[in-house]
Amino acid sequence: xxxNKESLFRSQDMTLTQLYVANEIGxxxxxxxxxxxxxxxxxLNPETTAFQRTFTQxxxxxxxxxxxxxxxxxxxxxxxxxxxxxxEFSNTMAAPSATEIDELADRSQSLEQRIQSLNDSYETLKRxxxxxxEWRWVLREAGGFFDRARGQTEEIRQSIDSNDDAPLLRDVxxxxxxxxxxxxxxxxxxxxxxxxxxxxxxxxxxxxxxxxWRTLRGNLYMNQSEIPDPIVDPEKNESxxxxxxxxxxxxxxxxxxxxxxxxxxxxxxxxxxxxxEMRRDQIHEVNSRLQDLSNVLxxxxxxxxxxxxxxxxxxxxxxxxxxxxxxxxxxxxRFSYDPARKTLVAEAWCPTNTLGMIKSxxxxxxxxxxxxxxxxxxxxxxxxxxxTYNKTNKFTLGFQxxxxxxxxxxxxxVNPGLPTIVTFPFLFAVMFGDFGHGAIMTLAAxxxxxxxxxxxxxxxxxxxxxxxxGRYIMLMMGIYSMxxxxxxxxxxxxxxxxxxxxxxxxxxxxxxxSSGQTIAAKRVEGYTYPFGMDWRWHDTENDLxxxxxxxxxxxxxxxxxxxxxxLCLSYVNARHFKSKIDIFGNFIPGMIFFQSIFGYLVFTIIxxxxxxxxxxxxxxxxxxxxxxxxxxxxxxxxxxxxxxxGQGFVQVVLVLxxxxxxxxxxxxxxxxxxxxxxxxxxxxxxxxxxxSHVSALDDDDDADGQQPNGRPSFADSDMDGGAMITQDIGxxxxxxxxxxxxxxxxxxxxxxxxxxxxxWALSLAHQQLxxxxxxxxxxxxxxxxxxxxxxxxFVFFTVWFALTIAVxxxxxxxxxxxxxxxxxxxxxxxxxFVGEGIAFEPFSFRIMLEDEMTxxx
Length: 857
What we know:
By secondary structure, the protein is an alpha+beta fold. The chain contains 26 helices and 15 strands. This is H(+)-transporting V0 sector ATPase subunit a.
């Protein structure tokens, strides 16, 4: 088969190539191919573990460098230092040289030691500063706590004498607490009362008090106060609100318990002296140490920020370099080594039309390295199914993503992505049709396209990122919505009077608008509205009735056209794969069956539109009842329901044609494939035939019937038909269940019609919601006059515009898009799409670095 040109209609022709690369330039060759990004390498060492592969040591070394760079990145983010974005570097796709990698590894090692040293010093100093700050607050608050405690000494003694169950301040043994103090300050030591002073996070204060009270049974005296300024936690770099506390208790054991409880809840304990003079000296000492520490901290911080700023200017490029180098060695680990020839052997899929470019690139690498032995590129004939590669650009990428989300097309199968460029936005527009809403969507998409590069380089949240990725889909949806809005004559739910109306109001004599009298419109003789619906239908009593009927029938016609061309694509696939059984067993009976039902329904809709029933004095027949009676009572036309002469006979013929196709579709292909399978076995070709058939479906790593290194021992053959046969035979399994033809037909008809009637339902819902929003906002604003009217119009317009964007454009647009997606996946693609392909995943620096570049913006 001749190589096809680059097109979205089919995937590109692929070739399995074998490369013999000199060991000395293996890295350079893979780097060059990574820049091209057109080769998908097969793993020739599937049984070898990751630790046993050739280039494991190099990957470990690069992992360590990557860890160091990520450490720098973490420190830069922690210290809120800006990092130079990746887009400011030129030629980010170029492969690094071995010397650059060695220099980067040595530099990152020394920088890591330097940053770690500075960071450890800074964190140690910061921790010390936090401790001194907390200690200063404890010393400041402790004086008041001690004064209050001494002032209540006599009261506490009396409470002790009257209550034996509260021995907090009772001193039995009168043991001194060490140190002598004069006057009033000896009261704590005389009473053998100790104390614990410290700082605790404010959110733990309640739990701290409860635990102390329950553990010590109330034998304590506690004072606390809030620190007004938050304390910065040096480990988490977060501000924490804390409280100062001082706890007085009796006995060393109780004091020890208090210390343990405090430390378990994250409190910091500090040494505080009872003597006010000594506390004053401690405060002076702490302030002096804080001043010195602040100077050292400032110098350390400036040095650390300078180092990180310098690193941040190159860090993004370093991360890209290491990422590429690591991927090169991971790819080299997929090669096999030929010790006799001292060469690396690789196998890779690539588009056939890129072979010349690949050979030219490899020759450039050889010439640059000065080797006389060229890199050999052989084409291998194989029965394995090649991966599917559909080349896309910025415009087609979004539409192809819609198809790939459903499944990967089989190799050289018709790609639904091409017609989806038209059908997806058009079916969306049928449901979303409004010129104003479509214009908003078009302008939003055009803005994203115009400012594409700056938006692509900036940070994007998840919602905007999705919209930006599908900006060209939005553009097409907006344009088509403007088109269908003109057809519906809708602009923000109001009429769009582009041409003179074909209807004129017939006002009676002495007509009074306040009487509520119904006025009928008369058609202008000899004139037809040239495009779309007549704008005079807006705001009439029978507008909804007319648009119901029109849009429902239009949806059926759209569904028939969409599914008919989808069935035609199944014929194109069968012709391409040379599968006659799919033509005679699937396409022809499927088309006859479909057209006997839906083709006939579309014919009756158009025929009914073409007859002026009131001119001939007859009422138009109901088409839905006609379709139901067509299957339940073939040939029987109820009175008053005849559409055309001979209708009964035509419907009987169509029903019989549909009935005949059912067993053909169910049994012909399975029995034919069964017969072909048994015939092959009887002729003794079971081994070769079944092996080759299975290999077309199996994973690339399946090596049955092949020589070493995955190369088959037989010539290339067209195995796609075999793949389909094997699948169908395997699926024939059990016997077919019996069924009632009439029930199945009615269920299938209603199910398929209902799928496309969502076009009608969502279109009407969108129109009615737009009308309600207009009446609830701007229509009320126009009832005001004077300055109040100006203010009301301004307020209501703001509300109307905001709700239009949020509800009618965003929410309704998302709903219509999802329904359009379902019609493509379930109704259209199920008629022809095999979807059993293997996605082409080339070794490409550009693709590999897309996610990384998004993070490094």
